Amino acid sequence: MSAPQVVVHRDKELMAKAAAARLITKIVDAQSARGSASVVLTGGRNGNGLLAALAEAPARDAVDWSRLDLWWGDERFLPDGDPERNHTQARQVLLDSVPLDPARVHPMPPSDGPCGNDADAAAAAYATELAAAAGPEDHGPVPSFDVLLLGVGPDTHVASLFPELPAVHEQERTVVGVHGAPKPPPTRTSLTLPAIRAAREVWLLAAGEDKANAAAIALSGAGEVQAPAAGARGRSRTLWLLDEAAAAQLPRGLYPPASA
Ligand SMILES: O=C(O)[C@H](O)[C@@H](O)[C@H](O)[C@H](O)COP(=O)(O)O
């Protein structure tokens, strides 16, 4: 697993724009090298902020949207179209504005879908979908995602892996149901750390002073059970994208701001 690289931007708006530009380049490079690209989306303010910046990016259409596979790192277990679902929010800020191939967009099952109101069954169905998309060159029963995006919670959670809760301990399954999550809604589905770590690159997004403590804990060698963000590592790259407020508790010498 790759050691974390940290890039600090002046504020959350600039961080979102810079992350969007970085993602466009990564997708274009993957598509020119392999004919397609795969990205795992995250929910939350920073995740949606990145997608909104992507929608407005000047180079947006350098991406061949028809050859982009989109997955989710976690989902709130709610009915399809519920405004609180990460999928619904991603569609509103970006996905409905670009010419994606619907067959290549893979939302996690809703609570009113074929799995019924059973988050564990929904998780198992998504794990099956991931395994079906994995190839012989991939590292386990998930595709080798080019970029897996993760918002970081103030408690250091990523996806729906919360400190000390059962899902963060999972080492076998790639997707699990989450019950009793401290961040509403309590029932969710989430990739596990082994699935996250199958990604080529993992990018963690944290902006705002309410993330400063989480960033400092996760980057100071904390264990992944106490600080799930610490266990979110990519095979070839782990990149923390912060604004200055979220980087406030990091040793300044180590992580000088990228943009003054
Ligand atoms: O379903 C969710 O809520 C997200 O997937 C979650 O993991 C989010 O990324 C973090 O909680 C950070 O959220 P903010 O960026 O809004 O702080």
Automatic annotation (TrEMBL):
Residues 11-240 form the Glucosamine/galactosamine-6-phosphate isomerase domain. Its EC number is 3.1.1.31. One of its GO terms (molecular function) is 6-phosphogluconolactonase activity. Signal peptide: none annotated. This is 6-phosphogluconolactonase. GO terms for biological process: carbohydrate metabolic process; pentose-phosphate shunt. The lineage of its organism: Bacteria, Bacillati, Actinomycetota, Actinomycetes, Kitasatosporales. Hydrolysis of 6-phosphogluconolactone to 6-phosphogluconate. The gene is pgl. It comes from the Bacteria. It is an enzyme of class 3 (hydrolase). It catalyses: 6-phospho-D-glucono-1,5-lactone + H2O = 6-phospho-D-gluconate + H(+). Belongs to the glucosamine/galactosamine-6-phosphate isomerase family. 6-phosphogluconolactonase subfamily. PANTHER family: 6-PHOSPHOGLUCONOLACTONASE. It comes from Streptomyces angustmyceticus. Pathway: Carbohydrate degradation; pentose phosphate pathway; D-ribulose 5-phosphate from D-glucose 6-phosphate (oxidative stage): step 2/3. Keywords: Hydrolase.
